[in-house]
Amino acid sequence: MTVSPLVDVAWLNAHLHDGDVAIVDTRWYLMDPSQGAAEYAVSHISGAVHLAIDEDLSSPAWDGPGRHPLPPAAKFIATIGNAGIDGDTHVVIYDSAGGSIATRLWWLLRYYGHTRVSLLDGGWQAWQAANGDVRSGHESRPARQFNGQPQPHLMIDADGVEALRHDPQALILDARALERYTGAVEPFGPRAGHIPGAISAPFGANLQADGTLKPADDLKQRFDDLGVPQAGQVVCYCGSGVTATHNIFAMHLAGYDAKLYPGSWSDWSNTPDRPIATGEQP
Question: How far apart are CA 168 and CA 224, in angstroms?
Answer without folding.
Answer: 17
